Amino acid sequence: MEQNGNGQKQLQIELKEETAQGVYSNLAMITHSSSEFVMDFISILPGMAKAQVKSRIIMSPEHAKRLLMALQDNVAKYEAAFGTIEMKDRKGTYMPPISDFHGEA
Predict the structure, then answer these.
(1) What is the mean pLDDT of the chain?
(2) Which whole-number Å values give the CA distances from 21 to 17, 24, 25, in the listed order?
């Protein structure tokens, strides 16, 4: 960490080019244990029977709650600027069955 002009420490964050391009996900599955949350970000294509996990993020319960609060704050700011995010009617929307999901954290 470096110090700024006010004597406060600043964290330098590096964003590599391949990470900066991002990964598309249109499905997320979240599991947890007593010590961690596991978030799998998945890309599922229409007409395909198989989906692919594109990224897995593992974090502590405390950080998961911080992420939840940050998402709530950002969605509220987005809706204040651009209007309410409409959720499509679930009819006709594909939701994969999760009753047979056997992921582990």
Answers:
(1) 87
(2) 7, 10, 13
| Statement: residue 6 has pLDDT above 50 | yes
Phi, psi of 3 (to 5 degrees): -100, 140
- On whether the CB atoms of residues 31 and 24 are closer than 8 A, the answer is no
Count Cα neighbours of 41 within 13 Å in the Cβ-side half-sphere.
10
Phi/psi at 57 (nearest 5 deg)? Answer: -115, 130
What is d(CA 76, CA 48) in angstroms, rounded to the nearest whole number? 34
DSSP assignment letter at 32: E
Q: What angle do CA 71, 2, 5 make, to 5 degrees?
A: 100
Q: Based on the number of CB atoms within 10 Å of its own CB, is 76 exposed (0-12), middle (13-18) or buried (19 or more)?
A: exposed
* pLDDT bucket at 105, cuts 50 / 70 / 90: very low
Instruction: Encode pLDDT of 43-54 as tens digits.
Output: 998 888 899 999
